[in-house]
Design goal:
CATH class: Alpha Beta
Strand content: 15-25%
Strand order of the largest sheet: 5-18-17-12-11-10-9-6
CATH architecture: Alpha-Beta Barrel
Number of helices: 8
Structural class: alpha/beta
Radius of gyration: 21 Å
Helix content: 25-40%
Shape: globular
CATH topology: TIM Barrel
Number of strands: 20
CATH superfamily: Aldolase class I
Order of helices and strands: EEEEEHEEEHEHEHEHEEEEEHEHEHEE
């Protein structure tokens, strides 16, 4: 297993060194902090601020078969503790992406999670086929949940059967040994049922969550603030929703890998997702104000785990679902009348090895 040591630029005295590796499907990543799709293109913008190969992986902006101009402007609106975006999956198309962006990521030694999006099941299958044999490809994230499309019928993640049809096609076309993760929408009544349908269709894991569908009205113009009227809400405002979704899916599917995301700004935010059941996390919107946020979150998460007595990142995954084990320390509290009873993560849980 690999280890990560905190970068000197962020390192305080006695910085922790612990096993931060995590496994998603058949792939082991050196650490659990990724970028989030759509917030840093293909990583080149962030590479001037830190070495992107030090992250667990770079998740690319969702790519489609053909070049796409996206939705009408204005495309972004600030909200309390977050932002709305209505970009509309703008991009260069898969061929230009492979020749330029994916090739560059491979040259940098970054592990790459390619996010794909399409308007039909056939689109997703064709995109996946084009990824075969490409260096640096670590995982495929299937974006079936983007709210920033003109036709809401394209949001496959809102229907279990539609979601399953896409995942099944991608899984059949995917390169051997490359995990396929379905990216889910929180804009559903029962996210666990969508998750289960994707897993039954062959998904190796789940990315949880995409943005929430939202809207802002400009009270000066008295019209929608976004050119596309609605957009995807991201940022700290959605974090409680995202943590809830991760929790519900982990309860329903205790063994499926989860990549958690939604409003993560700090290492403690990331830890919250991990305790809820995420095997790794993606850092997104906060990079607009702090381009070094992903590497900072990694350092802060490592320190938070060390401060809580963990020696391995994986020991914290889903811990909030388990009943605490209490024990009396060898040296009880010498001041109080009652022995101090505390929790420590190194203590085994009932039924655990």
């Amino acid at each position: 297993m690999s280890e990560v040591t905190l970068r000197p630029a962020h390192q305080a005295p006695s910085a922790p060194t612990l096993d931060m590796s995590t496994r998603l499907g058949s792939v082991t990543f050196p650490n659990p902090v990724f970028t989030a799709s759509g917030c840093a293109a293909a990583g080149q913008e962030l590479d001037q601020f830190f070495d992107i190969s030090e992250l667990g992986a770079i998740v690319t902006k969702s790519i489609m078969l053909a070049p796409r101009s996206g939705r009408a402007t204005p495309r972004m609106a600030e909200t309390p503790s977050g932002m709305l975006n209505s970009i509309g999956l703008q991009g260069p198309g898969i061929d230009a992406f492979l020749d330029k962006d994916l090739a560059w990521l491979a040259s940098r030694g970054a592990r790459t999670v390619v996010s794909i999006a399409g308007g039909s099941v056939e689109d997703y299958a064709k995109l996946t086929t084009k990824l075969r044999g490409r260096p640096g490809l670590a995982m495929i994230e299937v974006n079936i949940s983007c709210p920033n499309v003109e036709d809401r019928g394209q949001v496959f993640a809102c229907d279990p059967a539609a979601a399953a049809s896409v995942i099944s096609a991608v899984k059949r076309a995917a390169p051997t040994g490359v995990p396929v993760f379905a990216k889910l929408s929180p804009d559903v009544t029962d996210i666990a049922s969508i998750a289960r349908a994707c897993v039954d269709a062959g998904a190796d894991g789940l990315s949880v969550i995409n943005t929430l569908l939202g809207m802002v009205i400009d009270t000066d113009t008295m019209r929608p603030a976004l050119g596309g009227v609605t957009g995807g809400l991201s940022g700290p405002a959605i974090r409680p929703v995202a943590v809830r979704c991760v929790w519900q899916i982990r309860q329903a599917l205790p063994d499926i890998p989860i990549l958690g995301m939604g409003g993560i700004r700090t290492g403690l935010d990331a830890l919250e997702f991990v305790l809820a059941g995420a095997n790794a996390v993606s850092v997104g919107t906060t990079v607009f104000g702090d381009p070094r946020a992903p590497i900072r979150v990694l350092d802060e998460l490592a320190r938070a785990l060390s401060d809580r007595g963990f020696e391995r990142f994986e020991d914290a995954i889903g811990l909030a679902h388990k009943p605490p084990v209490l024990y009396v320390p060898e040296d009880p509290d010498p001041i109080g009348d009652e022995p101090a009873v505390v929790f420590h993560p190194s203590v085994a849980f009932e039924g655990d090895g």
